[in-house]
Amino acid sequence: MIPTLLGIMLLNFIIVQAAPGGPIDQIIARYQGLDSNASTRLEGGGGDSVGSGQESRGARGVDPRFIAQLEKQFGFDEPAYQRFFDMIVDYATFDLGNSFFRDRPVVDLMLERLPVSISLGLWTTLLVYLISIPLGIRKALRHGSRFDVWTSGLVIVGYAIPGFLFAILLIVLFAGGSYFNLFPLRGLTSPDFDQLSLWGKVTDYLWHITLPVIAASIGSFATLTMLTKNSFLDEIHKQYVLTARAKGASDRRMLYGHVFRNAMLLIIAGLPSALVGIFFTGSLLIEVIFSLNGLGLLGFEAVMQRDYPVIFGTLYLYTLIGLILKLVSDLTYVWVDPRIDFETRES
Hints:
- The structure is a single chain.
- Helices cover 73% and strands 0% of the residues.
- The protein is globular.
- Helix 12 packs antiparallel against helix 13.
- It has two domains: 2-80, no CATH class; 111-346, MetI-like fold (Orthogonal Bundle), CATH 1.10.3720.
- It has helices at 2-18, 23-31, 36-43, 52-59, 64-74, 80-92, 106-141, 146-160, 163-174, 198-217, 221-236, 239-246, 251-269, 271-280, 283-289, 295-305, 308-336, 342-346.
- With 347 residues, it is mainly α.
- Mean pLDDT is 78; it is low at 35-59.
């Protein structure tokens, strides 16, 4: 996990440093009344490297002493390898630094946005599991039937549709785009949320979260549904099920008394991995489209502003949480299924 984490951070550090229009260019663009795109065109590429960047900025009439002060303030007066090393040392103690443009600690910014992302992720996970598991069981029991074929086609089509494209479709259809105006276009709550009653707050929250959750869930049904179906099919054809049937066990007792708990082991063990995909893969564009102030939108804004501490801080925590959940997933597999023995395989 540690080499993987360091490798991801190093690779992204190199890519971000090489991207044009760094933090100093952003400030100079604001200072001169230009947008960041104009700054990038004038700069001619390159990040905040010292040398040629100074000459081009100086040619644009910016005082070199002002540039040097900015580079010292942001730490760009040090070599890139030294900045990366200092960043990793600070991150080891979860000191993520301060935002360049918000003048606030990165941890505070993330904690402020975290409830939105958690809310979207948990509702999406709940919806996916409540639909996919019963659907997968039904498909396994009616394997090869017309119901099985049609539902497989539907979940595969849903898997093929990008979440952000489906989100735009939902907005056009149900958020006042061209047809119905049934749901709000943006935000997680209404402006008068604090003045509402308890029941009013609950309904207002659910009213706002409906379209984002549906858009985030559409691509997650296929994997879990097919995993559930195949897991149950594999258990149904095992010898202990045939023995239970020969002894006169009813289909209901056979399914929920024997097959269910064995087939669900694989699905339960895969929950941490599913959370990684739902929380960190599909939330960015959904949050941007529906203007939800979550971690995905925070990272997107940081990339647009070249706010390096926020970019690397969110990347570090995303990667760390993802690796930990992957480890929990592996440990859960061994815990729920004693037949898995990695030491025996290695020997």
